[in-house]
Amino acid sequence: MKFFKALAIVCLFFFLIGCEESIKKLGPEDEAHDGGSDVTDNDVVDTDVEPTDDGDSTEPTEPTSDGDSTEPTEPTNDGDSTEPTDPTNDEDSTEPTNDGDSTEPTNDEDSTDPTNDEDQVVVTPQEKCAAKNGTWESSSQRCYQIKNCEPDKPANSEWNGDSSYKIYYDADIEILEPLTYPPHYGDGEPEICQYKCIENYGYVDGECKPYCSAVFNGTDSMITIASEDAPSIVGLESWTIEAWIKQPADNLPDYQIYPVLRKGTATSHPEYLLSGYYNGNNDNGYGLTASTYYSYQQYGNQTRTGDNQVNATFNTFPEGWSHVAMVYSQETNQYGGGGGWTTYKLTVFINGNLAKTGNYSGAPTFVPNNEPLVFGARNSDRYFTGLIDSIKFSDAALYTENFEPAKLSVDDNTIAFWDFSNNANDSVSGVIGIPTSIGYSTDCVQ
User: Fold this and answer.
1) Domains in the chain: how many in total?
2) Residue 183 belongs to what domain range?
3) β-bridge mates for residue 348, sequence order
4) Does residue 88 form part of some domain?
């Protein structure tokens, strides 16, 4: 009977052990140990059978700490234990610590937190400057770019200042300033993007146009050519002196001759003279004068001298550019019986229209003088006001009837020509005139 009781106790013991193992397998791994279901060597089993030390006995023995024992033992701090334990400083613990492998932001050198980390990327102003394709100016600690003046300057001009400039880039606010310097005309103090017209050109409405006329101010302007260099009409059988002129209608002189050109001073008779427009006597229209000084043979072989002065008058003042010409010519007239005679004439043409003709007495001989040829003045008084585009002398009578005037140019009959392209030089002989208070204009005959 005692044997069966002992057997029952052993069976109960192993039953309890099996239950404990099942509970461990079924329970969560991270469940906290409460010690309620563990069987320890402190448990007291109520039995009527006293265990013995018989090694062959099937009687259960006292649980020990033997590593091979299957008896559950008290959870310890063993690193291999699967029993969840309290968080400690164990190296394998997942609790956030100051461990070097921790993902918690620290002052670690590999941390991505923006701190005083040595790997933090810093963009310098010089690098920002380079990113803008700029150049760093160390003296001002600024970044700049070089810009060319745009748009291009007009034709026949040159820069009167720097043709490029710096625009500065603020590395902090990323602004380029100023945006542009526009090209502009100016012939004074040089400025950035300032241009001026080249020699012999003047500025008009954004363009540089060639100078083509001389400006006479009506006060002291004149061009003087030495007598020995001036063209002479003495000995020529026919000739033409012509010019393009432009006078302001509100500044015409009153019944006075203000020469376009005059060979001779005020104290002598002019070898030839061609005046500009003037107000007629007593407001009797407008006038223009052509004149020569000559000698002639009178009846009885008596030599006389005189002026052939032709005063053309007209009612309407031709504003704008006017072509004026004085022409010396000869005409042969026939008698009914086969004989004939020669007529000598001085004719004035205004804008291609025959305005007035004056006849000479007999065959004239033009009287030279040793005075200079003066454009725009009667030596030291009576100054012409306005523009003169060109003056031309020819050794032929170019006009004998009405014609359509054209811009003057050099041809086979030209003996002297001035076009006043920023100088007072005769383009045929190269004679250099001496200008006084002369300006030049791009306003000219087209």
Assistant:
1) 2
2) 125-208
3) 326, 356
4) no
